[in-house]
């Protein structure tokens, strides 16, 4: 186990290999669905919509899918703004792969800009929080919040590790990115939405889900807020068991996203969608 590749060390934790293998089999199966041969763009579009709905639901804006599909104006109240931000992020994630490979921190700033534009004051959009600045966090407020300086230093370290490359599976790298962003909450708001969008970028760029058809946000919403917070607390604990349980939680979310897109494929095949 190489100390120069900590992602690979996490991939070797007990149970993680099984989680990774199970997700890989599930993803391969949906990619092999006959609908994907000619209608993959439709599946990708539907996965983006359902992923956005799931991400917003994890922030407390649990709207019916058809309401998200129908609505065009997302201004006027907090829930609508969250749903609108989730939709913008879902559309943006796949466009940032080239920049991500060169500057992950630039992509995170861009994701926050996309999420918070029109919601926060201009000077706070895309900018990490300063010392003493609070965080609007309806979900993970009970998890201890690092200082702005600690958050910045840890993000810089994470970016260096990403740029150095890893032999770890994309699922593990994505789970770590997701967990770190939720633990650090580097921005004044929208951290959950940004963390889930960054996870999606890693899953696409890492080759696990290159067409972005397996929305983990759907699975996270289905697994529920209580389980989400409990899994993050395990990650933040830093114990082998806690980190492995977090990765397993993220893996299960991807698997449930695969199930969702498999249902979409089946509906398209029947002509019902």
TrEMBL record:
Domain Fido: 103-249
Transmembrane segments: none
Protein name: Oxidoreductase
């Amino acid at each position: 186990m190489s100390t120069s590749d900590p992602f690979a060390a996490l991939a070797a934790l007990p149970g993680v290999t099984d989680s990774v293998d199970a997700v890989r089999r599930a993803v391969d199966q949906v990619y092999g669905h006959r609908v994907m041969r000619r209608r993959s763009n439709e599946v990708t579009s539907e996965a983006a919509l359902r992923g956005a709905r799931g991400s917003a639901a994890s922030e407390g804006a649990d709207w019916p899918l058809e309401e998200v599909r129908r609505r065009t104006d997302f201004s006027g109240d907090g829930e609508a703004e969250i749903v609108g931000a989730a939709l913008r992020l879902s559309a943006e994630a796949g466009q940032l792969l080239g920049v991500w490979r060169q500057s992950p921190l630039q992509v995170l700033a861009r994701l926050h800009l996309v999420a918070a534009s029109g919601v926060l004051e201009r000077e706070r959009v895309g900018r990490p929080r300063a010392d003493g600045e609070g965080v609007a966090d309806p979900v993970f407020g009970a998890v201890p919040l690092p200082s702005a300086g600690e958050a910045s230093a840890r993000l810089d370290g994470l970016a260096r590790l990403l740029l150095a490359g890893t032999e770890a599976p994309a699922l593990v790298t994505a789970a770590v990115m997701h967990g770190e962003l939720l633990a650090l909450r580097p921005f004044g708001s929208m951290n959950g939405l940004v963390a889930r969008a960054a996870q999606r970028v890693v899953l696409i760029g890492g080759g696990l889900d290159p067409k972005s058809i397996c929305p983990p946000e759907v699975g996270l919403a289905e697994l529920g807020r209580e389980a989400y917070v409990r899994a993050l607390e395990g990650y933040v604990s830093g114990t082998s068991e806690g980190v492995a349980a977090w990765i397993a939680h993220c893996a299960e979310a991807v698997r449930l996203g695969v199930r969702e897109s498999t249902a979409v494929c089946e509906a398209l095949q029947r002509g019902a969608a």
